[in-house]
Amino acid sequence: MQRTAILVAGGKGTRMGGDLPKQFIVINGLPILGHTLQRFAQFDPAMELIVVLPVDWISFWAEEQTKYALPKHTVVEGGQARFYSVLNGIKAVSNASELIAVHDAVRPCVSLGTIERCFAKASQSGAAVPVVKMVNSLRKLNQEGTISVDRSDYRSVQTPQVFQAELLKVSYSQPFATDFTDDASVVERAGHGVNLVEGNPENVKATNPQDLVLLNHFLSRG
After folding, report:
1. Quick one: how many helices (H) and strands (E) in the chain?
2. How many structural domains compose the chain?
């Protein structure tokens, strides 16, 4: 079965601070994006890998990756919003691909087990999303103030979100909506349910500087 992973790094990571987009920050000898590429290639060496980057940084990455032994991948331009970045990635997917994973390129510590569970469930049911249980207490805002809610009713969503190829393509033929928060929300709007699978707590997304401390710890221990 031909599988594809679209690694989305279309943003500039302004919350991280500094001039270098977070996907290019080097941790433990490799850019974060490089670690993510290696993780998916380790799972399936035959997997088609597509990287979505800001157009202004594509030439930078073309030069930067020559310093490292990275898996073969195709680079496409990002869009004005994540929806359009994923759509550009989908357009680059080969016709032979049967399952497509969409993954945040700055989540380099996704486990092989999480990837396997997502692909297996998507193969059976069409759509799979990795989640982890909430560990902090939650409160909901309302007009009177806030109320406590049962955290067991909620899950924190991760990537890769994996879909049967035709389902994802049809879903992304819809017009863009501002409440599309991830690929699962796009697929749900198209009328298809998603299935939850177990993620892994180390699957941290590099968003703020403190996240780099965690990623450095996880990546350094192998």
Report:
1. 7, 12
2. 1
> What's the length of the chain?
222
CATH number at residue 119: 3.90.550.10
Q: What angle do CA 35, 41, 86 make, to 5 degrees?
A: 80
d(CA 74, CA 52): 9
Render pLDDT for 75-99 as a digit per residue (tens, 0 to 9). 999 999 999 999 999 999 999 999 9
Q: What is the DSSP letter of 184?
A: H
Q: State the sign of the Cα–Cα–Cα–Cα dihedral 99, 129, 208, 39.
A: negative
Q: What is the pTM of this model?
A: 0.95
Q: Which are the contacts of 44, defined by CB distance < 8 A and separation ≥ 6?
A: 3
* Residue 188: both structure tokens together: 């749900």
Q: Which of 136, 130, 137, 80 is nearest to 109 (CA)?
A: 130
Which domain covers residue 79, as residue numbers?
Answer: 3-220
